[in-house]
From TrEMBL:
This is Putative Molybdate-binding protein. Keywords: Metal-binding, Molybdenum, Signal. The keyword Metal-binding applies. Molybdate binds at S44, S72, V175, Y193. GO terms for biological process: molybdate ion transport. InterPro entries: ModA (IPR005950), ModA/WtpA (IPR050682). It comes from Streptomyces afghaniensis 772. GO terms for molecular function: metal ion binding; molybdate ion binding; tungstate binding. CDD domains: PBP2_ModA_like_1. Belongs to the bacterial solute-binding protein ModA family. Residues 1-21 form the signal peptide.
């Protein structure tokens, strides 16, 4: 009987150990993020967030950050339609509201940076563009983001502030697509974010214009309610909002909130 009791106890200990190991594999260890965190982020955040993603993975061994970059309105629609994601970083409060109105965010989104518009031209600025009004010159091929996209809505505000009307050759679904048109010389100019002009380096030239002050966008970030990996998601958001995160974002040209 003592032998049977001993065997039963050993079996229970073995089962308990297996259960503990399984929980650890699922990232249940308190305070230690693990597994994959999926971040949906505005296209203008691509360079900065990729840098922060690598830093996050280095600081938290066993984690992986995957990104889905695009127009904030498209990303918000995907989230409200049930796309699995942990974090949403939008280029405007309006697009974040699409998610919060559907109660798909956990808690209140926090603004972590701001962004300002700039005119992008081919290197050397061959058309001598110096003002927003110059974009209305006959024959000039100008590209804007679609008005449903934050960079497009901001461009519309800037044009209204200057009392200007502009018919672009195309409306693009995200800021990177608008910038690419200039890089490929398919357009003479595009109204994009100053961060995108900086990220493009010598592929484009940038022109500041005063009306951009009337169309500065706040960028909010939020943990999503149905996040598959909330622990890692919270840790990533903490990195973005930390002094270390702000340093990376400031180098890219983002403004303090």
């Amino acid at each position: 009987m003592l032998q049977v009791a001993g065997a039963s106890a050993a079996a229970l200990l073995t089962l308990s150990a297996c259960s503990s190991a399984t929980g650890s594999d699922k990232g249940s260890s308190p305070g230690k993020p693990s597994g994959t965190v999926t971040v949906f982020a505005a296209a203008s955040l691509e360079e900065s967030f990729k840098t922060l993603g690598k830093r996050f993975e280095k600081e938290h061994p066993g984690t992986k950050v995957t990104f889905n970059f695009g127009g904030s309105d498209t990303l918000a629609a995907s989230i409200t339609s049930g796309a699995p994601a942990d974090v949403f970083a939008a280029a405007s409060t309006k697009t974040m509201a699409t998610v919060t109105d559907q109660q798909d965010a956990a808690g209140t989104p926090a603004t972590f940076v701001r962004n300002r518009l700039e005119i992008a031209t081919p290197p050397g600025n061959p058309d001598r563009i110096s003002t927003l009004k110059d974009l209305t010159k006959p024959g000039l091929k100008v590209v804007l983001c679609d008005k449903t996209v934050p960079c497009g809505a901001a461009a519309r505000k800037a044009l209204d502030a200057g009392g200007l009307k502009l018919t672009p050759v195309s409306y693009e679904q995200d800021v990177k697509s608008a910038l690419t048109k200039v890089e490929l010389k398919e357009a003479d100019a595009a109204v994009v974010y100053q961060t995108d002009v900086r990220a493009a380096g010598d592929k484009v030239a940038g022109v500041n214009f005063p009306e951009s002050a009337q169309a500065v966008n706040d960028y909010p970030i939020a943990l999503l309610k149905n996040a598959p990996n909330p622990k890692a998601a919270k840790a990533f958001i903490a990195l973005v909002r930390s002094a270390e995160g702000h340093k990376v974002l400031s180098r890219a040209g983002f403004l303090k909130p």
